[in-house]
Amino acid sequence: MAPDQDGAFYGPKIDIGVFDALKRNFQCATLQLDFQLPLRFKLTYSAEDEAKLERPVMIHRAILGSVERMFAILFEHYNGKWPLWLSPRQVIVCSVSFGSAEYGKQVLARLHEADFHVDIDISDRTIQKKVLPSSNRSPGQDGTAQPSPAHLVEAQEEAHPPCLLAVAAVRPSAY
């Protein structure tokens, strides 16, 4: 049932709350029965025997609450480091040198064909700067690593046939 301070006045209500990373409680989903709107709109349906008209009950639901609140909770939960399934940039292909950029572009094309959201970094920066974010700057500024759940470092020059080294993002536990 709705607490006294809520604006729910037309029927019983169930609120589902979640906790964010700071242990604050947020209302996420809501289910509420509405006996008033069917009455107001003069809604009826015929019962099983079709001799008697019945008044329906409406169910209002907001499964995720507002989209903004849902994303805010996810952003805090993952500390801004999205998991692979949610990240707008799932993989970054990093080339070791300009000479091996062509192989990196082939990897990029194959990952795009597999419906991954992929970028490529063929700059002359070191692999460390491409993969590891700097601790004193925001990611992406001043040549530091871009945020991504995974980086693929191609090593065509070192290995025959060409190979990839997967570098997963290190994410502190959110639990």
Features:
single chain, 175 residues, alpha/beta, Rossmann fold, 2 domains, 3-stranded antiparallel sheet, elongated, Threonyl-tRNA synthetase, ATP binding, Thr-tRNA-ligase_IIa, protein biosynthesis
What is the structure about, briefly put?
With 175 residues, the chain is α/β, with parallel strands linked by helices.
Could you walk me through the main structural features you see in this protein, from its secondary elements to its overall organization?
The protein has 175 residues and is an alpha/beta fold. It folds into 2 domains: 13-77, no CATH class; 91-168, Rossmann fold, CATH 3.40.50. 19% of the residues lie in helices and 26% in strands. The protein contains 4 helices and 9 strands. The strands form 3 sheets. It has a 4-stranded mixed beta sheet with strand order 7-6-8-9. Strands 1-2-5 form a 3-stranded antiparallel beta sheet. The protein has a two-stranded antiparallel sheet with strand order 3-4. A hairpin with a 5-residue loop joins strand 1 and strand 2 (25-34). The longest helix is centred in the middle third of the chain and has 13 residues, at 101-113. It is elongated, with a radius of gyration of 26 Å. It starts with 12 loop residues before the first strand and ends in a 7-residue tail after the last strand. Belongs to the class-II aminoacyl-tRNA synthetase family. This is Threonyl-tRNA synthetase.
